[in-house]
Amino acid sequence: MKLKKHGLRTSLDLSVTIPSLIFILGVCLFSAILPQATEAALTSIKVFVFINLNWVYVWAITIFVLFLGFLTFSKYGNIKLGPNDSKPAHSFFSWVAMLFAAGMGIGLMYFSVAEPMTHYTTEAFSETNYQLRAKNAQLYTFFHYGIHAWAIYGLVGLCLAYFAFRYKLPLSLRSCLYPLLKDKMTGRWGTTIDVFALCSTFFGITTTLGFGVVQINSGLQKLGILPETSFTYQALLVSVLVSLSIISAISGVDKGIKLLSNINILAAIVLMLFVLSFGPTNYLIGAFTDGVGNYINNFFALTFDTHIYDEQALPWFYNWTILYWAWWISWAPFVGLFIAKISRGRTIREFIAAVLIIPTFFIFIWMTVFGNSAIWTDAHVADGALGKLVSDPDSMMFEFLNYLPSSQIASALAILIVIIFFVTSADSGILVMNTIATRNAKYSPKWQTIFWGVLLALLALMLLNAGGLQSLQIMTLITALPFAVIMVLFTVSLMKALVIDQNYYDSKFSVTTIPWSGESWKERLKKMVNFKSQSAIKEFIDNHVEPAFKELKAEFESNGIVASINKFENPLQIEISIAHEAVDDFVYGVKCHRKLVAEYFMQESNLPDVAHTKTYYPKTYFGDGRDGYDVKYFTKNELISDVLKHYDRFLEIVSQEDNELFISNSEED
C-alpha cells in the first residue's frame, strides 16, 4: 500500500513503514525515558539467550560457512547474479571498497586496538606467558572479524542478489524465502520479515553511529580541536555528519557512496602503512604470517568451540564470540542488502570468494598492524600503560598513536577515516532503509532519504543524551536470534532455487528436432572459407532470417498464437517473440557479433583468405539470457526448425510446476 495525498508523493509501503516506525519509536522512547530499567530488563533476556541458546548461533554460523564453501566449489558457482549476459555495474576495486566500508566501517577503527588489547589482558585464559597471550589475542580477533563474520553478510547478500536479479523479485528479504513461501511472500509473513529487517537495520546503525560519534569526539579532544567530550559537541558532530550522509545518499551509489568508499579504503591503507613503517615492522610481518597459519590450523576447532569444558572462559565466550555472532547477524539485513544492490552481474563463485576472502585478508593485515603493534608497545615501550585503558576503547586508538612519530598527523588521519566510515555507514544505511520501506521502488522522492537521515540523527542524539544506546544495542543483539533461524531457512530456499536453476539451463531439446542435413553442404563449405563483413551479415538477416521469421509468424497466427517481429539497425539484430502475461515472453533473436582473427591465421597459406583482423557472424540470443551460437550456415528452413526446437523446449519448461519461479513474469514496477 503506497500513498499520494495532498500533493505529497511517496513510494513508502505503509504496511512495512508504519509498524516499523511504531516499534522503533517505542523501543527508543523506553530506552531514553527509563534507560536503567530498560537496560536491566533487556540484559536479563540477553544473558538468558547467550547462556542457554548460544549453540543456535554456533551451529547457524557453521552452516553458513560450510554452505558458502560448498557453493564456491560446486557447479552452481558459475551461475550469475542476474541474466547470463549481465555485466557488473562497478569496477572490482570500487565494489570491494563499498562492501568493505558497509560491512565493518567504524568498528574496524573502534576495535582495531581495543579488542586485541582486551583479549591480551583478559583473565579468561590461564596463559601468563606474554607470547601466548599475544598469540591468542590475535587468533580470537581474526576469528571474530574473519570468514565467519563475512559468511553471515555473504549469505544474506547472495540470497538477495540472486532472487532479485536472477528471478526478478523485489530486492527484499521476503524474496529470499520465495521458493518456500511462494505467494505467501506478499502476505503477512513477507511483511513481518521486512518489518524485522527495517527495525534491525535502524537499531544497528543508530548504536554504531552513536559509538562512532563518541570516538570522533574523543579524537578531536585529544588533538585539541574540541575542548571536551560532551553531548553538545556530539550533537554538533551528528548534525554535520548525518547531513553529509544524506547528501551522499541522495547522490546515489554510483556517485557519493562509491567515491567516499574509494577515498576511505585508500586513506586506511595509508594509515596502516604508516603504523607498519614506524612500528615494529619485522615483528608485525612475522606476526601476520604466524597468525594466518594459526588461524588456518585452528579454523574448525574455533568454529565448533563452545568452551563448555573451560568454565573460566565461558563469560568471555558469551561477551565476545556470541556477542559478535549476534551483532553481525543483526547487521546482516543492512549489509547484505547493500552488498546485493552493488553486486548484479557477478557470478556466485566470484561473489563468495570476494566477500569472504578479500575483506578477511585485509582485516587480518589491519588487525595485525594495529593490534599487535599495540601489544608490542604495551610490553616493550609503554610498560603496561595501554593495557590499563581497555575500559576506555574510545580513546585507545589515539593513545596508541601517541607512541609513534608524527602522532598528531596520524591521529588526524585516523579521525578522518572514522568520519568517512561514519558517513559511508550512514549513507548506505539510509539507502537500505528506504529500499526496505519502499519494497525496492525504482523511484523515491528525495524527502524520504532526508526523513530517514533526520530520524536516525534525532534518535541517536536522544539516546546519547539519555544514556540509552546500550539498551538499543542489547535489543539489537536479542533480535539476532530469530533472524539466525530465518537465515538457516535462506540456505534451504537458495539451494532449492539453484537446483531448479541448473535444471532449467540444462534442459535438453526434444529428440524430434531436426539436425543439420547434408543437402546444402557445398553452400556451407563456401561459407566456411569466406569470412564475413558486417554488410554480409545484414544480407544474411535480410535474405534468410527475416523470411524465416515472417513465415513462422504467419504459421503461429494460423494456429491462434500471436507473434511479433522486431528488427533493429543499431545494433544489427532481428527477433521473433511471443508475449505472455503469466510467464516470461518467448524470444528468439539473431544479432550481428564481431570477433578478432589471429595474426598467424591471416598469414597461413593453406587456410581461408582473410583480409581483415575483424570478422562478423550472426549469433542467436534468447529471452531467458542463455548463451547463443553461430547460425551463419543455417538455411531458411533450418532456421525455422531451430526456432521451433527452442519453442518446444520453452513449452516443456513452462509446463513444469518446479520452474514456476524461474519463468513467472514477476518483475514489479
Annotate the secondary structure layout.
Layout: E1 4-5, E2 8-9, H1 14-33, H2 35-52, H3 54-73, H4 92-103, H5 106-111, H6 114-121, H7 130-145, H8 147-166, H9 178-181, H10 188-222, H11 231-251, H12 253-278, H13 281-297, H14 299-304, H15 314-341, H16 348-380, H17 393-401, H18 407-437, H19 446-466, H20 469-506, H21 521-528, H22 534-558, E3 564-568, E4 573-578, E5 586-596, H23 599-603, E6 614-622, H24 636-654, H25 660-663
Antiparallel strand pairs: 1-2, 3-4, 4-5, 5-6
Helix pairs in contact: 1-2, 1-10, 1-19, 1-20, 2-20, 3-8, 3-15, 3-16, 3-20, 4-12, 4-15, 4-18, 6-7, 6-16, 7-13, 7-16, 8-15, 8-16, 8-20, 10-11, 10-15, 10-17, 10-18, 10-19, 10-20, 11-12, 11-18, 11-19, 12-18, 13-16, 15-18, 15-20, 18-19, 22-24
GO cellular component, one term: plasma membrane
Subcellular location: Cell membrane
Organism: Sphingobacterium corticibacter
Mean pLDDT: 83
In quaternary terms, these chains amount to single chain
Largest sheet: 4 strands, antiparallel
Strand percentage lies at 5-15%
Per DSSP E runs of 2 or more residues, the count of β-strands stands at: 6
Radius of gyration: 29 Å
- Measured between the Cα atoms of the first and last residue, the distance is 13 Å
- What would the CATH topology of the largest domain be? Amino acid/polyamine transporter I
Number of helical elements: 25
CATH architecture of the largest domain: Up-down Bundle
Approximate helicity band = 55-70%
Strand order of the largest sheet: 3-4-5-6
Integer count of domains: 2
Q: Label the overall shape.
A: elongated
Would you identify the regions where 5 or more consecutive residues have pLDDT less than 50? 1-6, 510-514
Which structural class do you get from the secondary structure elements? mainly alpha
Briefly, what CATH class of the largest domain?
Mainly Alpha
